[in-house]
Amino acid sequence: MQPKPMADSMPPQKETISLAEAQERCNNWIETFQKLVPEADVKQIPKAIFFHWADIEQIVNDYKPDYKINGVRIYFAMTELGGEYQIKGIMIPTVPSPNDPLRSDDLVIPVPIVPRPGGDDGLGDDDEGVSIYDFSKPCPTYCDESFGSIFSKRRI
Questions:
Q1: What pTM was estimated for this model as a whole?
Q2: CB 3.0 to 4.6 Å from 94: which of 26, 104, 117, 132, for a disulfide?
Q3: What is the pLDDT confidence band of residue 123, given thresholds at 50, 70 and 90?
């Protein structure tokens, strides 16, 4: 676990929640998933998706010069229907909506690509790359080892 920063060195934060509230929300998710998929192994229930900061920065740096990028949207997806509960996060840059200043629109545009080794990029011969990214690391598989201690109020 990372050392805690000194509270007085942190700028005031917006929209944080308490550890107890985070624990309750995570437990609510797990219990809801178990009701929806009763046969699910609790160890395989999707818990989180990690995106490396460098990947987020890449999107900002690549698009910001030409587009008014205001964030990214992450869609939940699965690589195969009926497979294990391996949820992925598909990331798309967003721009301000011209119709509503409180909303953002997905920026899906053609982009040049670097093919993945072995052709494992989901593209067919006639497909072109677009600004939809999958560099997510889902949990389970890529979990924080301290997840159990941070969210220790798990009821399951």
A1: 0.72
A2: 104
A3: low
Query: What one-character-per-residue DSSP string does 68-130 give?
Result: ---EEEEEEEESSTTS-S-EEEEEEEEEE-SS-TT-EEE---B----PPGGGTTS--TT---B
Q: Report the distance separating Cα 44 and Cα 140, nearest Å.
A: 6
Domain that includes residue 67, residue range:
18-114+129-150
Residue 57 lies in a domain: yes
Spatial contact of 156 and 148, defined as CB atoms under 8 Å apart: no
pLDDT of res. 154: 46
**Two structure tokens written together for 64:** 């910001």
- Give the separation between CA 138 and CA 136, rounded to whole angstroms: 6
In a domain, 62, yes or no: yes
Q: What DSSP character marks residue 8?
A: G
Residue 140 lies in a domain: yes
First to last CA, the chain: 23
pLDDT at 100 over 90: yes
